[in-house]
Amino acid sequence: MKILVTGKNGQVVTSLVEAAAYMDDIELIAVGRPDFDLADPPSVRQTILAVKPEIVVSAAAYTAVDRAEDERNLAYAVNVTGAAAVAEAAAVLRVPIIHLSTDYVFSGTDPYPYLEDDEAEPKTVYGYTKLRSERAVASVNPRHIILRTSWVYSPFGANFVRTMLRIAAERDSIGVVSDQWGNPTSALDLAAAILLVATHPARHYSGIYHLAGTGETNWSGFARHIFDVSRALGGPFADVEDIRSSDYRTRAKRPANSCLSTDKFERVFGWRAPSWQASVETVVRRIIDRDYPNYSPQPRDGQEV
Ligand SMILES: NC(=O)C1=CN([C@@H]2O[C@H](COP(=O)(O)OP(=O)(O)OC[C@H]3O[C@@H](n4cnc5c(N)ncnc54)[C@H](OP(=O)(O)O)[C@@H]3O)[C@@H](O)[C@H]2O)C=CC1
Ligand SMILES: Cc1cn([C@H]2C[C@H](O)[C@@H](COP(=O)(O)OP(=O)(O)O[C@H]3O[C@@H](C)C(=O)[C@@H](O)[C@H]3O)O2)c(=O)[nH]c1=O
Ligand SMILES: [Mg+2]
């Protein structure tokens, strides 16, 4: 099966390329800038029509949540107009599209895990553009699966796990918000799920699905687990101080609760992601082996390391 995935260096695309390398029956073609630019719809159409994939995975997006508040037009062009061009090219080829979206489409004010049909009410420019992208994709290509995921991390690219380890290599203690809840998701698990959907006999199904790591935490709980694992492996660690969002000012206000119920995905595709803790361990181990192989902590005032 020939799969086209959008983006070259993103977390999800890199994880897909890695996973597909082990599968003989899958040819994965990643397309990205400069030839394929979501901000330039003709380049999108041309690239996809030339590759003629059997299915398209739409993983590229403008993902800088804070910067999007000041770059609305660019975020919209990439996430909405660009994604619509991807879905339209897939429709011209009469092939399905798996389009990735986010927990940030929800306001985060409800106290339970969000279901696919719950009302989306984004509070950030990024979340708004992703919601509009879902609707644009669905309206131009009837053969769509919208896969909403959350808090994605991996050995690759920019993500919370790599940020925490980098900061811990320089500081003893980190303040991390404890009043935003969600489901950390390893891009390695997400890649496995995407390939499952792409090759599933039911791939003509359409609709929205939630797929995220199993179990809930907040960002400070996530950070603590990263450091527990890293410390045991001889990598960087730091004390985590719980702080409130109101004490950590950011341009975009994140949802307080963006946990996603993944029951529908499990019901239809028979698969659930590992516990978020187990997946963090896998990824932290890889990052330490690669980026901190001979790490030795700096001696810190009055503290044993
Ligand atoms: N990261 C997260 O926590 C979450 C992500 N998602 C969604 O999952 C998907 C994948 O995210 P993730 O892999 O983490 O993203 P990354 O931020 O790691 O990567 C973004 C990708 O988009 C590509 N891209 C950005 N702008 C353009 C453009 N104008 N033209 C072409 N490609 C472009 C980048 O290109 P290049 O290769 O050139 O850098 C890169 O490949 C996105 O749709 C995102 O909205 C959903 C929930 C959580
Ligand atoms: C670096 C740092 C962050 N934080 C907080 C800020 C924020 O509330 C939270 C996470 O910060 P980040 O900037 O990594 O997260 P953010 O960019 O909001 O991550 C989001 O990205 C987009 C693309 C998505 O789709 C979402 O699912 C989600 O993963 O941690 C601290 O409290 N202390 C720190 O030292
Ligand atoms: Mg970020």
Automatic annotation (TrEMBL):
Keywords: NADP, Oxidoreductase
Enzyme class: oxidoreductase
Pathway per the UniProt entry: Carbohydrate biosynthesis; dTDP-L-rhamnose biosynthesis
Cofactor info, note text: Binds 1 Mg(2+) ion per monomer.
InterPro entries: dTDP_dehydrorham_reduct, NAD(P)-bd_dom_sf, RmlD-like-bd
Presence of keyword Oxidoreductase: yes
Domain of life of the native organism: Bacteria
Short name of any one Pfam family annotated for the protein: RmlD_sub_bind
Gene3D superfamilies registered for this protein in UniProt: NAD(P)-binding Rossmann-like Domain, UDP-galactose 4-epimerase, domain 1
Cofactor: Mg(2+)
EC number: 1.1.1.133
Record-level Gene Ontology MF annotations: dTDP-4-dehydrorhamnose reductase activity
TM spans (from-to): none
Function text: Catalyzes the reduction of dTDP-6-deoxy-L-lyxo-4-hexulose to yield dTDP-L-rhamnose.
PANTHER family: DTDP-4-DEHYDRORHAMNOSE REDUCTASE, METHIONINE ADENOSYLTRANSFERASE 2 SUBUNIT BETA
Record family assignment: Belongs to the dTDP-4-dehydrorhamnose reductase family.
Protein name: dTDP-4-dehydrorhamnose reductase
